[in-house]
Amino acid sequence: MNDNSTEILRAKMNLETAQIAWRELQRFFAGGMAIAVAAELDLVDVAVQIAEDNKVQVEEWLHEGKIGQVSDAQAKAWFDNDATLWALVVRPWVLVQPD
What we know:
Elements: H1 3-16, E1 18-21, H2 26-30, E2 34-37, H3 43-51, H4 55-64, E3 67-69, H5 72-80, E4 84-90, E5 93-98
């Protein structure tokens, strides 16, 4: 993608980012579609890199443990604490990030 279309995508995704209760995201977790994003990363930036299929950057984050499928322990803790998370859909994934 060129710089202009990347900026349009970034703006669109920024508008689609929302806080949502973890309990509302259980079906995505159950389907293996919930991806946890580390707090130090920008959720929108991660979404843009995934949408643009930037395999090098995404693999680096995966290798560093900064993104990955939500673990059972994370899901249980968020459920037990009635957590609200930032979320953003990048089909077929739902990216989630703690406040």
